[in-house]
């Protein structure tokens, strides 16, 4: 099968999200200028550089009570900071609850039954007890093709790691089973690792 996205795929559901998988989930916490916390998961998320460490996430939707975007992007525009919380399998229901479309003055931490903790280097909340949290200063917000599509880039200025995730000096994902997004309504979690040595190592 071949299709041009501009012509449509003819299938009952869009296959694009199922092709680009698995995708890590950036559970983005932000705070607006009035001090209200927000939390939302984004599966268009990844690390993009080592030095300095940088991440990105893309927001591809719009809310009626925001200006052509979602709460996360609107808050980051106002404050210039955000935090990426890593999602573990045990938090899958809370992550899903925080994806609900809620008014901008509703705190998703409370809605999802999560406890906020203050970040160290930025004025933002993070998820207390998350396997890891990355405190970020926004470097740029890029408008890309399509309605309400924005990519947010941030430099990581603070890193939290839960004590039990460090095993023999390494951040060990087997201690918490990171959740990943697949296509449609499907998810998976990582439980096994294997190692490949690069030819030039």
UniProtKB/TrEMBL annotation:
Residues 18-173 form the Flavin reductase like domain. GO terms for molecular function: FMN binding; oxidoreductase activity, acting on the CH-NH group of donors, NAD or NADP as acceptor. It comes from the Bacteria. SUPFAM superfamilies: FMN-binding split barrel. Pfam families: Flavin_Reduct (PF01613). This is Flavin reductase family protein. It comes from Sulfitobacter sabulilitoris.
């Amino acid at each position: 099968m071949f299709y041009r996205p501009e012509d449509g795929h003819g299938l009952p559901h869009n296959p694009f999200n199922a092709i680009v998988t698995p995708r890590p989930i950036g559970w983005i916490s932000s705070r607006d200028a009035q001090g209200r916390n927000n939390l939302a998961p984004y599966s268009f998320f990844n690390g993009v550089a080592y030095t300095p460490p940088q991440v990105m996430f893309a927001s591809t939707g719009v809310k009626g009570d925001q200006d052509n975007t979602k709460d996360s992007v609107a808050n980051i525009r106002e404050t210039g900071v955000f935090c990426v919380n890593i999602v573990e399998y045990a938090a899958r229901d809370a992550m899903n609850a925080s994806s609900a479309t809620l008014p901008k003055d509703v705190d998703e931490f409370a809605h999802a039954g999560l406890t906020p903790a203050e970040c160290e280097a930025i004025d933002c909340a993070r998820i207390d007890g998350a396997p890891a949290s990355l405190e970020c200063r926004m470097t740029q917000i890029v408008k890309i093709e399509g309605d309400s599509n924005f990519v947010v880039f941030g430099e990581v200025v603070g890193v939290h790691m839960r004590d039990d995730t460090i095993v023999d000096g390494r951040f060990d994902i087997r201690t918490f089973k990171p959740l990943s997004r697949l296509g449609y309504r499907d998810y998976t979690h990582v439980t096994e690792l294997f190692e490949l040595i690069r030819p030039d190592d």
